[in-house]
Amino acid sequence: MTTGRMRVRIMMFAAGILAAAVCLPAFAQGTSAKPPRGVAKKPPAAVTQARQEQAKIYETRGEDVPATYVTDRALLSYGSTLLPDFTRALAELGPADRWLDIGAGQGRAILEYYGERFDAMNPAGREQRGSKAQSVALSIEDRRTAEWHRIAAGLEPGKISYLHGRRLREYTPAELGRFRLASDVYGGFSYTSDLSLFMTRILDLLETGGSFYTLLINVQPETASGRSAQSAAAFQTEILAADGTPVKICAWLRQIGCAEVTCDTDPRSETPIERYRVRKTCDKVSVPALKQLHFAPGTPPARQFRLADRTAH
User: CA–CA distance from 123 to each of 92, 99, 299, 305 (Å)?
Assistant: First the structure.
């Protein structure tokens, strides 16, 4: 093991969520710290340090990349990881539509969308798809491969693009445009330190009627009663009400104005994986504001938020 790889592994906490250890599907993410119950807000210096440690994970290359930081996820994995209707929603896009993939890594899923295999597996609507939608891959780090450049060169100009070096919140709607479909498989939704701002940005970028598909690992599912499934353990991403009582992620999403939300739990996983579809129904979007209480680096990081009295716009 290289010294750099050892540093990354030491930085992440031992109580991981490795796929093989908990019988998760191969697409599941892994190691991370858990937020302590009733944790107080970290001082600014500690928060800054935690974010710097997280940034080091993004900067890893080659053998130093943590095994649980997946950057080459296939499109088939998207179809089995997200809600079951994601593939159909993608197959129904036409040349006038646009797809945004957040946390795209190498952009493999987008490349496979333009391949013959996708059409063979989704014959319905092939004529409507035509030359297919325009796709935008968004990643903090540039992980494009020679295959990306080769396939992009063979497509019509502007059909696919790869944006990197900035987080979603650092782009303006004018820079990115509007999208009919957005996806996030262990991308910004799992990693952001400002969940309410992230959702505001996503909904700003969606057309009315457009949908955002994503998921979270190790959260309290909508169908769970109390904390029986996790008992004394903390969840990976957790929201607390002003009085400290837990608020389920799905319940928070359903408080968003101008959004229709679908939630379900992946039945194949022993660790709770909840999948979401957020459909934008009108332009007057309002997202309930969250205040960050805790952030510990990992893949994905452990996060805890408190529901604020005001809303983010």
Answer: 11, 19, 36, 43
